[in-house]
Every structure is written in structure tokens, then in C-alpha cells.
Amino acid sequence: MNYNSVIYKEDIPLIFTLKKKGEALILKSQKKSIIPIDDKKETWIYDKKIYLPTKKQLKYYKAIYDKLDGKDSLIYKNTESNLKKLLFIVGEISKDIIIDETVKNEINKVNTPRFYIEKENDNIYCSIDINYANSLNGLKDSRAKEKIEMELERYKFIKHKDKFIFIGNDEDKYILLSEGIDNLSKIGDVTLSNEFSEIKLIKSNDIISKIEEIDDYYNFGYKIDKVDYSEIAYIMERIKSGSSFYKTKENNFLDLKDTEVVEFFKTIEELNLFNNVYKEEIYVDKFSLIHLDSKIRNKRIPFITGEEKIKELVNKLNNKEENYAVPKDLNGNLREYQIKGYNWLKSIENLGFGGILADDMGIGKTIQTITLLLSNKNKKSLIITPTSVVYNWKSEFEKFADTLKVGVIHGSVSERKKVKENYKEYDVLLTTYGTLRSDFKWYEEKRFDFCIIDEAQNIKNKKSKITELVKSIKANCKLALTGTPIENNLLELWSIFDFITPGYLYNEEKFKYKFLNGDDKSLKELKELISPFVLRRLKEDVLDELPDKIEKEYLIPMTFSQKQIYNSYMKDIKKKLKENKKIKDNKIVILSYLTKLRQLCLDPSLLIDDFKEESAKIKAVKEIIQETIDSNKKVIIFSQFTSVLKNIGNKLKEDNISYLYLDGSIKAKERINLVNEFNNRDKNIFLISLKAGGVGLNLTSASVVVHFDPWWNPAVQDQATDRAHRLGQKNIVEVIKLISKDTIEEKIIKLQEEKKELISKIIDGDTLTGETLNTITEEELLKLFT
């Protein structure tokens, strides 16, 4: 055998394989031809070459060689201790080790790396220390090393001398803080230097917040570690832009992926909506607590302490079941649902809130409100109504609460001035939206206990002057009455809330941003926010308690010019009646006078061709028609005068509102077609004259009936009502009688109530005759003209 005479003074290039079989570790030498050629085993022949290995290799390989004893492998029990020893020894004697996959998994377990992350000046470094590092040198194929380097590269570390240096930007630094350190901890032990630990990732557990009650307000205090209060606005900008983090002035990182952090800062912004001063303590009113309750209850910011104060208030607001005594001097009996409505209003008042009574039309919002005010004697209230119902309110007060003194600020300047000069004498002041505009200067220095707006949809347009004026009225408790709180869009609801609870639903822009075209989540939030402040019952909700027909009388004051004409005619009639003592001979003239006065009550243009102004009654009926349209209901309007029905029709045309019309000139066949069209299609308005529609029609699709002018015979009026209120009607029928205030119409209605026998003498069917007038005394007849 020939040997190379060259002697290699270096380690023998040994090759080993290490694998796992069952519960055993097997170390195998790849070549058998290795022979010591001296007694001390310091010189070796390997692969036909002579080697003089280093002392280090000799130290560990001699033991392996002796154990092999001519064999090519050694078997060890698979324990962590044995694996560590083998890795260390083999790593010292060989640079070429083939490790089986099964062993690599074991190596990854025992070779736990240690990461040391430090900050030096503006740089961040990561040092790695791995147990049995010498073995790592020999384990170039180990998955452990590959995984470590890949993880560090993932978090923007690159090799720099004997360390790794961070080369990332602020976003990369946030990722390192928010997830990188945790992930490195999963593959090794992580130690942070004191300097690096000063770079803080601020999360929800770094926020301390508390609520305390102080008099009529609540103090919302908060402190955020490492965040200055002046930074809140910048944080909100980052949240709105969808950023994952905010870098603070002190170079810390606020975690904006923490949903509780985001919800907290959104709440801070909401509470500072009109203030925009970000400070340690925020004084909030009761309305703002509802926002906090919603967030705390949904566990989005659960770290706020003192929330029991909120829960106590919100529970009272959501469970308004306390029973308040109905005033004994209320002239009338409330139905059960009306008592509940009264209790709700009292609770709203006593909790210091405002509210919306949004009961369906005809359920009795007026009497519930009157009962509330009657329970608050010696308090000052202002009620703002549409012109068409202001005197109806006064009449209702006289009927149900005659112990309250009510003043009406409406009419001429002198009439209004008289009430205003003596306003302290009144418990309740009634005015209209239009009159409020004229008198607003007078209200600027006044403060009321209650400010109540009827038909609150009148302030749905925030840009209108009247909306601005109504919202500027000062009152301790503000209430809104409306059967249609939302007619077209959610902004109408916002405008009403802006009256009863300014700021509660944010400003207009923020409301639109949060809720208009919002998703189900935002609409659910809106519902949660408004529900404590709105009470709405539909007729079908209280059907068992309601009568099947609700009758109401609206006193309508005439316009100024209309009243002038009416008074002029009345004065002339009185003069003629006084001058002519032979009343029985004047029966045709009297009938003519009565008809003219009635026409002037309805619309002066029926008598005066150049009268262009819209009459008060036509204005009122247009409002009623609009309300029924908004409520998706059908309405019938009855009048004895076809000329006034045509005038109403012309006004509806001007407003692009379609309607059906029926009078005596319509043939029978066409009448049936009109009735069917009204009952079965989307036609909501039917104008009908007495002669054509007083009897014989079935109009059960209508749920609102308007009597534009009072009929002399109440029985005929009832017959007309029964066109809708008859067998087959599934809805409650609301009957509205329009009566011109301070006119012959009002006196006839009063006579109907006081002296039906007298009326029966005047009326024969639906027309006046000379024969019936023969039985009326001069005094009784003249009463109609006073």
C-alpha cells in the first residue's frame, strides 16, 4: 500500500452522521480507514494521508475512537443531556456533520437562542447568544439558525459585524414593538436593555380613566402614560386616516390597532366636540353619559372606573316605570296608554332631560302634555304650534286644565303686546312659529321651565330662520311633539334632537359622517342613542284602548285681511238686522247673509274675485294633507261648497300633489271608478262635496276625514264620516273639524253643544228654510251674528 509522504498538520476531515431511531441517538462515522500510528494516538492515517491533528480534536476524538472499537457507529439513549454532549463533542472534532431531520427538531429544542436588544444613541442592535454555540458552527444546515436569521430580517435587522442592526422606519419600529418582540420570544429568550425599554408601546392598559359626579355635571378624568394632552388632536387625525400607530412627542408608540384605545380616543373627541380643548378633566352633561354607557356596555372601553354612576342614570332613563299621580284637577280621564305617556314625560322632566313624544296622529299628544304642565303649577311654559292649531290648544287647556291660566301671543300687534306685558300672570304661553319670528326680540331675555314645540317637523330644515329662532329659546326642559319625527331623511331627526338636546347627536357634519348612508352597526348605535328620549306608539299598538273614531276640532284664526273683510260684512249685517225688525220677512236675506259669512270663513275669494291671499283654512288643510302624505295615509276632505273644493284642488296642483275630485256633476259610473281608484291605488287625497258623497260611498281605505266647514246638521256630518268609518274599516278613523275662530262657525258649533233643540229648529236636513226660521226668536237668531 502506498502512502502519501506529505504530513498534514491539521485536523482530520472527519465526517459524521447523527440520526434518531426510536428512542436512540446513533452517531456514525462515514469512513472506517482511520488508524493511529503511534502509542499516544497523536498521529493518524486517514484516507491514505498522514495527519497531525490539533490538541482540541485529539482531546475529544480519542474518546470517540476508543468507544467505536472498530465499529462505525455509537448508540446513545435519546435524552436532552446526551444530545447536548454529542452536539458539543462532534462540533469540536468535525466540520462536516450530516444531521437527520428528526434530530434537527430535537436540536431546535435544546439550542435556545438568547436575544439581547439594546439602544445605543439612535441605533437599535440585536445580539444573539445560542447555548452550545460551538455546536452551531458545525450545524450549518440546522433550521434553528435559518429561522433566527429570517425572523431578524423580517423585523428589519441586518448582519453588522458580530451583531444585527435595525434599519427600519417608524412603522417597522412599531411592528417590532407590537409583534416582533413577542414573536422572537417564541423562539428564544429576549432581554431588553434599559435604554431600549424606554421606547414604550402604549396600549389600553396604560390608560387610567374615572368618572365622578359633581353637582349637575360629571367629571370624566383620564391620564395616558407617555402621552401629552396636546397630542389628542393629532392622534385623532391618525385614527381617521387608518394608521396603525401614533408616534408621540417622546418617541413612544401608541397602538392604534388596540380597539379599546381607538374607542377611548373617539370618546374623548366626542366629549370635546364643541370645546376642542383637550385636557385632563372634561366636564360633561348627562346627555354625554349615554355615549359613554353605550361604549362601556359593549365592552369597547371597559377600563373606565366609576361607571356605576352612569349605569344608575341610564337605568333610570331606560326604565321610566315610576308612577306619578295624575293631577286631581284634570278635567277628564286618561286612557292607560296616556297615563304611561304622562309618566314618561314626568320621568324625562325629573331626570333633567328633553324628549320627543312621537305618538301617532290622534293618540292624544295634546292631553298628555297638558297633564304634564298641570302637574307643574307655578312653572312657566311656552308652547309653539302651527297657526292652524294654536287656538285648539287653548280650547284644550280650557277643557282639561281650566285652573291653568293660558295666554295666546298671536293676532294683531296690540293683542300680542297686551299678553306680553302681563306674561308673568300666565302659566302657559301659546304662540305660533310665524308669530315667534315677529316677536323674537321679546323672547331673548326670557327663560322658561318648559319649551314645547307642536308638529316638530316644522324645524326639520336647519337652515330656516324659524328653526334657528326656536332652537335659541332658553328653557330647562325642551319637548317636541310630532307624529312624523322623520319624513324624508335622518337629518330631520337630528334637527329635532338639536332642539331638545343640543350636541347630543353631534353637530350636523359629524352626524352625517357617522349615520347618513351608514352601515347596520352605525344605525344600531343611533337607535341606542335616541331610544331613551323618544316615545312612539302607533294606533295599532294601543288599539284595544282607543275608540274606533277619534274626533278633534281645530280652531283656525283667520288671516288679517280675511278677518277685516269678515268683520266688515258682519258689521253691515248687524246694522241691517237692527234696522229691520220684521225678521220673519227677511228669511231669504238671512240665509244669504249666513252663506256669505260661511264662505268668508272658508275662502274670501269665493265672494271677492280679486282676493289672492291664501285663506287660513286652506293653509291649515294643506298642512293636514301633507302630514297624511308623510304618514302614508289616505284622507277625505268634505265641504258643502264645490267652489272651495276646486280652490283646494288648485292649490294642490301648484304643489304637484295629485288628488281625486267628486261632486254632483260626476255621473254614477264615473263615481264608482273614482271610489275604486281611491281604495285600490296610490291616490291619497279625495275632495268630495256633500251632495255627491255624503251617502252611498264606501271609502274604507281612508283613515283621516276632514270636515272643511261645519255642517248645520250634525247627523249629516256623521253620515259623511261614515263613508270611511264603516264595516270593513281596519284602521282607526281620525275626524278633524276645521272651525274658523271668532266667527259664526264657532258659534254654531257652540250652539250645537248647548242647545241641540234650537239647532233642529234651524235645520231641516242640510239646508236652512224660511219655515224653520219661523220658530226662532229674534234674540236667538241675532246670537248667530254677534
TrEMBL record:
> Any idea which GO molecular function terms this record carries?
ATP binding; hydrolase activity
Keyword Hydrolase appears in the UniProt entry = yes
Q: What is its EC number?
A: 3.6.4.-
Annotated InterPro entries: Helicase_ATP-bd (IPR014001), Helicase_C-like (IPR001650), Helicase_SWF/SNF/SWI_bac (IPR013663), P-loop_NTPase (IPR027417), SNF2-like_sf (IPR038718), SNF2/RAD54-like_C (IPR049730), SNF2_N (IPR000330)
Q: Which segments constitute the Helicase C-terminal domain?
A: 620-774
PANTHER family attached to this UniProt entry: SNF2/RAD54 HELICASE FAMILY
**Name this polypeptide is given:** RNA polymerase-associated protein RapA
Organism field: bioreactor metagenome
